[in-house]
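README: folding subset

This subset contains proteins for which both the sequence and a predicted structure token string are available. Records are stored as plain text. Below is the entry for Probable translation initiation factor IF-2 (597 residues), shown exactly as it appears on disk.
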Amino acid sequence: MTDHTNADTLRTPIVAVLGHVDHGKTSLLDTIRGSAVSEGEAGAITQHIGATDIPLDTISEMAGELIDPSDFDLPGLLFIDTPGHHSFSTLRARGGALADIAVLVVDVNDGFQPQTEEAIDILRRTGTPFVVAANKVDTTPGWNPQDGQPIQRSLEAQSERAESMLNENLYEIIGQLSDAGFSADLYWRVQDFQKNIGVVPLSALTGEGVPDLLTVLMGLSQRFMKEEMAIDVQGAGEGTVLEVKDERGFGATIDTVVYDGVIRNGDTIVVGGQNEPIVTEVRALLRPRALEEIRTEKKFEKVAEIGAAAGVKIAAPELDQAMAGAPVRVVRDRPLEDVIAEVKAELAEIEVDTAEDGVVVKADTLGSLEAMANALREAEVPILRAEVGDIAPRDIAVAETANQDEHKAILGFNVDLLANAESELENADMKLFTDEVIYQLIEDYETYVEERERAQQETVLDKVVRPSRFRILPDHTFRQNDPAVVGVEVISGTLQNNRNVGLFEGNEFERVGQLSGIQKQGDDVDEARAGERVSIAIDGPTVGRGIEEGDTLWTEVPEKHAKILEQELKEEITADEREALAAYLETKRKRDPFWGK
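--- output ---
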């Protein structure tokens, strides 16, 4: 048994930085990287693919008096650049989140935004410990910047007014965290980081507060994650795919974060693929060349092996079907079947429930696919097919096969439309929705469905016979027959032209004729509403035989129409039309209780 207190067996904690698009994630990473490069010898910072490794010595240089390196036996911090700018969605490591710890960047002036909420959601679901970086403190009116200083040192240099304005914004964020179910406070007031979230005010631009952030991250990792950082240094490597990329001279490669063991050149590896796990052999492990050599032609240098925690580009045959977010496993001295089964089992955890009919979903990583599936389940939108990757012609073909028209749709999260799919989309009988915020994507789709339904109801409503009850006024017979022309008052409902009309003899409805004209103050109109007095022409009856002055007549509503009005369009018609319908149905149902049901 190896002695786990030995620093060699403790790996670097993996830190993910997430937050809303323009709240400063990238600039914060750049600042940390930049100051790390200027503090350490450039050579001390190993360049990684998709990650930046900052050794403990460099952190302690940057943090100054805040850190005593002898308190730590973790080797430093590995910041991963999450794929795209998307809020780091559940990239996994053995069923948990890939990141050991996260930084949630929030613009101190802007507070929580949609993607902040999404990020918090993911952190809550995966149980990832996190720290909040309240960025852009330097934009506080009247701020006096103290470049690179610890935040409390910087606060001493501010006017009371600037400090109180900043505090107001900070307490706003602490309040928003509390609404999201997290108890939080400024980090120097937090006693127990397992119960409370530390908020670190900082500026990515001036670097003030960055020492504090590094200190808090180191402290949290050392204190609460030491056990998890213990790894088998020479064990079979395990990692997670960040991105699949084509590289000249290498074909499809996978940018991978290795979180356990070692991957060596020539190792047989199993990688999660779109259909089946891919079994292949490592041809090259690539790292970016050191900064001073970047001028040479080749971007990458080959290394013989890579140990956790690290970012590396793996070149191997047949990786074009690999998926972002999928597991990477070195086989080494285990039966291949076992490793394949393990990768399958891990992918099965992320299987999306699909239905016979539903929408097509495409997302950039397995994690975001899972987040999309969860959100759609809550919105009760069924999924026909869900896959990682850009939108291809076959996705359009699949979407068109949906049974219900509103399901003929593709919801694409953080993905592109492949060039060869563009022309197909133009002629396709389906809708494409894309967005970089999950809930926005779903909201756009739901709005589309609602508008469709409304339009359909309006079309149906145009075709449906509206109910009406009207009375022939005494002394208002203008013509006895061919057609009979009489003055009427509409009691309830809408009297439409060209409809059959009749009256009830007991519970029997008797058709008397058809309307062939409605005139209102001498003008021809298509309909008359409740309360209006109009003259109407009726083909069929003779006044005095069949109809009399003072009679109450009804528009004859066909049974099918009555059913649609009562069951589907009740909310769409007016109160007096509902009243006319109810009275009509009541009389009809006295004779046949199931009429119109």
